[in-house]
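RECORD TYPE: inverse folding
INPUT: structure tokens
STRUCTURE:
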């Protein structure tokens, strides 16, 4: 999800303003993305509004919008009459213009979602397991995909892509999830993208699960005003992502924002990793030791009321680790905000954010500007939704920062 730059051949006057379009025919793909992104951001726009925002000529915008309307990506609204001149006709995204699948392969459960062009979830299947195995996981994905495509009927031709969100090097997590090394080693040579691609004729994208959750927050969350933020996702194992200049930053290996590996002060030793403190597997171990059923931890927004005492103790430790991780991240990049989300009930997320704020106040911040602390807006479904957003963004949209700078 890196920003799409205007090529140099457009000319210096048009290339420098990052958000401006080009009237050259060779740039039509970028201009179409620009129009779709603006319409999506504003909910609906008329031709003259888009021309003003982008610097494109009214004629160029008309050609683009007619083409997008013909492709059923835009819907024409009712004319809005002003005081003088012709009425303006706003166009908005057609929810049925395109569909996308998103598969989350987690350490305790899998989710498959189907979203429309607006990013609304049209179907959602959830599957819980003790630990992930390629065969079982793809059997679930195959069944869910088949049912969802059947419900789409003729609209199945509008499915434009699928994304997978899963931990990288899943085979290295055998001990942590309670599997044998032999069982998990099957992931080492298994091509999840190829397997999912065999279910249909769509391109398939792959991203780290926590980074995909960050992508969902960027595209569908309530923080479009933020240009730079660090994102923490509290799942079976804690992870995260980094957004710079309104774009998801994945780094040259795709593993940027591997925040679960960040060193934090330990209990009785020099340091631990954040995953040792802010991961749900830590709470899971405590519950199992006390004979408490842990299945609810894998449910979407499950009820934690039966073990709130244990949850409170876990939050105390998790909040301290997250606080140190946030301050450490802020010492490297001057983030506007730190967002915390996770596969936890909304009440737990709210409490966790409040405790992290308290813990940050205890840290020596000399020379560091602590970022604003906010809760994420997506929740448990963020990783699957983020997976579905990968083809949506890559094929139809431009980065958020380009839209922030439109006039």
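DESIGNED SEQUENCE:
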């Amino acid at each position: 999800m890196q920003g799409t730059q205007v090529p140099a051949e457009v000319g210096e006057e048009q290339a420098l303003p990052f958000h401006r379009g080009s009237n050259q025919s060779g740039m039509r793909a970028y201009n179409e993305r620009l129009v779709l992104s603006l319409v999506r951001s504003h909910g609906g726009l008329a031709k003259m509004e888009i021309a003003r925002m982008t610097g494109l000529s009214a004629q160029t915008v008309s050609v683009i919008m007619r083409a997008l309307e013909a492709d059923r990506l835009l819907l024409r609204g009712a004319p809005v009459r002003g005081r003088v001149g012709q009425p303006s006709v706003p166009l908005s995204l057609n929810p049925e213009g395109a569909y996308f699948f998103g598969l989350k392969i987690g350490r305790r459960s899998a989710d498959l979602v189907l979203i429309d062009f607006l990013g609304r979830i049209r179907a959602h299947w959830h599957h819980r397991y003790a630990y992930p195995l390629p065969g079982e996981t793809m059997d679930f994905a195959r069944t869910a995909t088949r049912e969802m495509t059947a419900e789409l009927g003729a609209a199945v031709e509008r499915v434009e892509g699928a994304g997978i969100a899963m931990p990288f090097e899943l085979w290295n997590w055998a001990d942590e999830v309670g599997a044998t090394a032999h069982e998990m080693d099957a992931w080492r040579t298994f091509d999840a993208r190829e397997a999912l691609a065999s279910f249909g004729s769509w391109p398939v994208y792959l991203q780290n699960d926590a980074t995909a959750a960050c992508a969902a927050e960027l595209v569908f969350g309530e923080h479009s005003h933020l240009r730079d933020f660090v994102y923490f996702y509290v799942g079976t194992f804690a992870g995260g992502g980094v957004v710079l200049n309104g774009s998801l930053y994945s780094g040259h290996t795709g593993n940027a924002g591997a925040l679960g590996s960040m060193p934090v002060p330990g209990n009785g030793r020099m340091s631990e990793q954040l995953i040792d403190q802010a991961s749900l597997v830590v709470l899971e171990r405590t519950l199992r030791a006390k004979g408490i059923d842990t299945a609810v931890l894998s449910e979407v927004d499950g009820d934690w009321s039966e073990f709130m005492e244990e949850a409170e103790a876990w939050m105390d430790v998790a909040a301290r680790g997250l606080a140190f991780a946030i301050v450490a991240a802020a010492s490297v990049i001057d983030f506007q905000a730190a967002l915390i989300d996770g596969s936890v009930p909304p009440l737990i997320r709210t409490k966790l954010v409040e405790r992290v704020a308290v813990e940050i106040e205890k840290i020596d911040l000399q020379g560091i500007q602590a970022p604003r602390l906010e809760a994420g807006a997506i929740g448990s479904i963020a990783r699957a939704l983020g997976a579905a957003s990968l083809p949506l963004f890559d094929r139809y949209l431009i980065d958020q920062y380009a839209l922030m700078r439109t006039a």
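NOTES: The chain has a mean pLDDT of 87.
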